[in-house]
Amino acid sequence: MLEEIDLFRLSHAMARHAGARQAVVAQNMANADTPGYAARDIAPFSAYLEGGAGFAARATRPGHFGAPATAPGFAPRIDRGAVRDPNGNSVALETEMLRGVEVRRQHDRALAIYRSGLNVLRAAIGRG
Predict the structure, then answer these.
(1) Quick one: which of 39, 73, 92, 119 could link to 82 by a disulfide (CB 3.0–4.6 Å)?
(2) Are 56 and 3 in contact (CB under 8 A)?
(3) What is the C-alpha to C-alpha distance for residues 74 and 88, in angstroms, rounded to an integer?
């Protein structure tokens, strides 16, 4: 039922994006000393919102709009702006730590949006 409310879909997608980005940040940190490893990142969540991935009119069942329902995918991409070390590695631990903090804030924001929506629903039915 809650999946049909756009506010909850948005907060769920935002939390999934934060989780996927955290996994990429952790992988980058784990490979900080691997020669030739290129740092990766996921496009910001705003890029998925602007592109309409999963937030425009959507199929709710197979055959609706002529296509099956799909969720947005968060594919990692190589970070082209990263500076490479002499061994070819482009991971900077300081940058990855800052990304980790940013991801944590995004995840906390998604949870706050979800909690706020639940509080509004509880107030609407008289249990708030």
Answers:
(1) 39
(2) no
(3) 26
12 to each of 29, 38, 73, 96, 121, how far by Cα in Å? 26, 29, 13, 24, 17
Q: Three-state SS for 75?
A: coil
pTM above 0.85, yes or no: no
Domain count for the chain: 1
Q: Which of 14-47 are b and which e, b meaning 16 or more Cβ less than 10 Å from the residue's Cβ?
A: bbbbbebbbebbeebeebeeeeebbbbbbeebee
Condensed to tens digits (0 to 9), the pLDDT of residues 68-83 reads 433 456 888 888 888 8
Residue 75 has which token pair?
Answer: 């594919």
The rounded distance, in Å, linking the Cα atoms of 88 and 117 is 46
